[in-house]
Amino acid sequence: MTGTPEFSRPVLLARIGSEPLRREIAAGAAEREALARRFSLLGLDRLAAEVELIRRSGDMILLRAQFEARFVQECVVTFDPIESALSAEFELLYGPPDAEEAATGLVGDAVAFEPLSGDAIDIGEAVAQEFSLALPSFPRSPDADAAVAAASDAAMGPFAALAGLFDRRGRSDE
Question: Contact at 8 Å (CB) between 72 and 135?
Answer without folding.
Answer: no
